[in-house]
Amino acid sequence: MSATSRNGSGERERSLAPVPRKYFKGSTDGKRPIAFDPLERVRASYDVIVIGSGLAGLTAANILGRAGHSVCVLEQHYNYGGLATWFKRPGGHVFDISLHGFPIGMKKTCRKYWNAEIAGRIVRLESIRFANPQFTLDTPFTRSDFTEQLVTRFRVPAATVEAFFDHLRRMEFYDASNETTGELFERFFPGRNDVHRLLMEPISYANGSTLEDPAKAYGIVFSNFMSEGVFTFSGGTDRLIQALRAELARNKVELYNHVQVDTIVVEDGRVRGVLAGGRFVEAHTVLSNANVKSTIEKLVGVEHFSDAYRAAARAVRLSNSSCQVFLGIAAGAEIPFIGDLVFHSTRPTFDSPALCDFHGQSRTFSVYYPRTRPGSDRHAIVSSSNARFQDWAGLDAAAYETEKKRLVEDTLACLEQYVPDVRSKIDHCEVATPRTFAFYTQHPLGTSFGTKFEGLQVSLDLSREVQGLFHAGSVGIIMSGWLGAANYGAIQANKIDAHLCALRESAGAHR
Ligand SMILES: Cc1cc2nc3c(=O)[nH]c(=O)nc-3n(C[C@H](O)[C@H](O)[C@H](O)COP(=O)(O)OP(=O)(O)OC[C@H]3O[C@@H](n4cnc5c(N)ncnc54)[C@H](O)[C@@H]3O)c2cc1C
Q1: 11, 41, 392, 486: which is deepest, by most CB within 10 A?
Q2: 284: which residues sit within 8 A by CB, 6+ positions away?
């Protein structure tokens, strides 16, 4: 996302952008540039290669580096962080892509797998606003406040609310139940579309899930948020990634950007290394942070997998994509406090697939006040909506521009309800669409949250199919978002550590 052109078309920008100077190291005749080699300093062999620098990939790399393994991360983009990223624009604008909110659990995760300083920068958002034809309310997004709202405003019996929250708290990934989220809501709050909206809309934005997805996935994610509210990283995503890189350097993890991994080399059912930038880099263990389907179908090749696994992988559904409108507030202009997150909708009732509508009626405003980046006096607003890649993929250049302008106009019309003179305060505006997400992350269909539920099992089973090959990254709803991705990276790192120790022991035994 970081290099989205003003007209938002990543494709155009790639062909128009000047080649960065660092790609040229001078030439012997003073005319012919010598191409910059991003892998110039790479070693011939590592214990582990991590493909992709999303939060799952980086967290795994850090844990493995800290445990004394030699690790390198290969990232095709120039920024590290994957979807946890930001971009800057002239006029002092900084925009965060996916820093809208995560559960308190991220603090513990950062303390355990990163360091106390990073964890210490995680702070709670003050207020979340819902504004739709069914209700308007402000909430700190905690169990106690939701209970209060459901009982006093929505007139749900207190015992039902308590029973609902207790039921969610007990849910686990290995629960046998096939109940969907929609069925769960109907069981506890029959016919109460307004209650379903309150409970579901934020989670649909947080991980792309719908009423048709398994209730246990909803229960786990919603309970995580409900414990203490919604949190953010003080200093912005740029500061976070800077801090992660410093910790990775301390743990001797090597990072290489501008490196497209083309192939994971597999022979006789075992990983041998990767082909990237025209080189072979050896490693008997590879962790892919690329999308799980791309990992199987493109990076490895389906011929290396069993028939049953291939079928399971083919059946994995991708999650939806997103659209965003980035609104930069001019230096000196201010936005009054309207809430940190505003779930705005003009849709009369709640319907989860409609959150992805091409001409949708629902969006979330993330308002970044100066306290987001302490020391700065700037404001920014990012409007995010769920979206389908297919709606945007087939548009020709003119239609694409028209639709982006329409999206900006719709967004501003909504925002004026909260800040009537907002247009006069904005001096930068640009749009990201599912095409932008696909371009910058290489995720199929520009998926924002990886895969639906079934993706998790396929991801977990990868190492059973190919020895030394692991996956970590947004899958299965639960392992998505900043917290889910980072925690999944930690889970996989522990498995890789055990795998590497076993390899060492067997090598020692054969000596
Ligand atoms: C608009 C939007 C808003 C969001 N808001 C929130 C939010 O408020 N809170 C929250 O918790 N989550 C949010 N998310 C989700 C969250 O950002 C992601 O779930 C999480 O960051 C994904 O991490 P990941 O480890 O799966 O990897 P990703 O971030 O998907 O990164 C994968 C990396 O792999 C690289 N890569 C892929 N293929 C290759 C290859 N062949 N060679 C080299 N590199 C490769 C990519 O370039 C990328 O850097 C949001 C997402 C979007 C899109």
Answers
A1: 486
A2: 47, 270, 271, 272, 273, 468, 503
